[in-house]
């Protein structure tokens, strides 16, 4: 069961659609969450890395996986924290899995930092009783480099499990595009993928948007994806 929050998780962002790109260790660990509470090594995990490394994808996938296992979960993107009250954390420690994306966005906001620190402590206290909630978070940098005002919050984050999410190479991006196309039931040539990487932006959100537009255009025109179709998409959209 997913807690009702103002967010809809992308249905196609699962563990099976995540290309490891050197992140096999974290992927294997996250797959265990929700399957058996005794497998949880630590109640807190922080994933850090730059933009377009797939951190959000992993959180979405963890929530989907928890739901498949019959576990309760919630996802919250703290880049939107101004739209919420810090009281949104209240009661979340009762869930099996809580995913907080982009925690760096609340840096230097004392109210939110205190609320996050208190919530982490509730999760830790619960784990000390033998019950289990897993708190999975992402940030742009390691905890030690986050500009938080609250030193105890940084200490708490460093106390948990920490994984660096590796940036995908261009070869990884080619493999990711091929994988996501296959999962959509699309056939896309290596030459078309090479052209996209050479003539468009290289960040994954952009590449996924182009792939989605190619899928739509292919369906509408009832034609296979071609280099000409890609050029049409690139010429008519600024993405």
UniProtKB/TrEMBL annotation:
Gene3D superfamilies for the chain: 1.10.8.60, P-loop containing nucleotide triphosphate hydrolases
Xref: InterPro entries: Chromosome_initiator_DnaA-like, DnaA_dom, Hda, Hda_lid, P-loop_NTPase
Example GO BP: DNA replication initiation
Signal peptide stretch: none
UniProt KW Disulfide bond keyword: no
Domain Chromosomal replication initiator protein DnaA ATPAse: 13-163
Entry superkingdom: Bacteria
Keywords on record: DNA replication
Key word Iron present: no
Pfam families noted in UniProt: Bac_DnaA, Hda_lid
Domain Hda lid: 170-234
Family per record: Belongs to the DnaA family.
NCBIfam families linked to this entry: DnaA_homol_Hda
Protein name listed in UniProt: DnaA regulatory inactivator Hda
